[in-house]
Amino acid sequence: MTFEADIERVLFSENEIRARIDQLAGELTRAYADRDFTVVSVLKGSCVFVADLIRRIPIPLELAFVAASSYRDGTQPEALDVIFPSGNEIQGRDVLLVDDILDTGRTLKRLRYEIIERGAREVKTCVFLDKPARRAVPLQADFRGFDVEDLFVVGYGLDFAGRYRNLPYVGALRESVFQAAGDRRGAAPRA
Ligand code: XMP
After folding, report:
1. Which tens digit of pLDDT belongs to each residue from 63-78?
2. CA of 108 to the centre of ligand 1 (A)
3. Residue 4 alpha carbon to ligand 1 centre in Å
4. What is the pTM of this model?
5. For residue 47, which phi and psi values (nearest 5 degrees)?
6. Cβ–Cβ < 8 Å for 159, 188
7. pLDDT tens profile 41-69
8. Of 9, 59, 90, 109, which is least packed with CB atoms within 10 Å of its CB?
9. Pocket test for ligand 1, best of 100, 151, 159 (most atoms within 8 A of CB)
10. 62 and 39 in contact (C-beta within 8 Å)?
11. In this predicted structure, what is the pLDDT of residue 72?
12. pLDDT score for 188
């Protein structure tokens, strides 16, 4: 079976993604006109999205990264490890926090808190995909690309077990791929 045969159906094609990112970049350009701001990309999932997005925002900005990875330690259902490369990229800045997908909302809530703790002046959030059906904490993204149904999706930076990030579109993975990996829903660790 080839890599692409693992995809049940395409949800957002390359062309649809391109068109939506153009609109989103326009919204962000208007929102941040005359403001000095820092885009903080959450690794690894948002790397493809952020690379396309910032190249369509024709105003000054800085780029920083944060790594967030979840793990299960046997006691808690899921915990989040967060690594900031350096604190002084955040202090006093207007931050646009960019992630691949807003699911339960726990990751962005925690990162938002950490960025405010590091002295950001303002934090807004931008997500490529929003899965509102799965929300566990009350959090809404300030900017978002597409709403997506409650399916496990891959491509355009999103992975299952580390793969599929390099697909240029977003697709739903076949159930048989989860089963082969011994994971019914495909709740892969993030990052
Ligand atoms: P929360 O639940 O904290 O999670 O909002 C956000 C992170 O969970 C991962 N995630 C997914 N990854 N396909 C993926 O490849 C999905 O459908 C999916 N849903 C959640 C992702 O890492 C995201 O940043």
Report:
1. 999 998 876 655 555 7
2. 11
3. 21
4. 0.92
5. -65, -40
6. yes
7. 999 999 999 999 999 999 999 999 999 88
8. 9
9. 100
10. yes
11. 61
12. 45
Residues (pLDDT < 50) of the chain are: 186-189, 191
DSSP H or E run through 111? helix 106-117
Question: Which burial class, exposed, middle or buried, applies to 81 when counting CB atoms under 10 A from its CB (0-12, 13-18, 19+)?
Answer: exposed
Q: How far apart are CA 188 and CA 163, in angstroms?
A: 10
Backbone angles phi, psi at 22, to 5 degrees: -60, -45
Q: Which of 130-135's residues contact partners 24+ apart within 8 Å by CB, and which partners? A: 130/101, 130/102, 131/101, 131/102, 131/103, 134/103, 134/104, 135/102, 135/103, 135/104, 135/105
Instruction: Quote the pLDDT of residue 190.
Output: 52
Q: Which of 135, 114, 119 is nearest to 67 (CA)?
A: 114
Provide the token pair at 83: 């690594």
- Token readout for 56 is 């369509």
Of 128, 163, 130, the C-alpha closest to 7 is 163
Ligand 1 binding pocket (C-beta < 6 A) is: 45, 99-107, 152-154, 158-159, 190
Whether 103 is a known active-site residue: answer: yes
DSSP E strand stretches across 44-156: 61-71, 79-83, 94-102, 122-130, 143-147, 153-154
The per-residue pLDDT for 79 is: 81
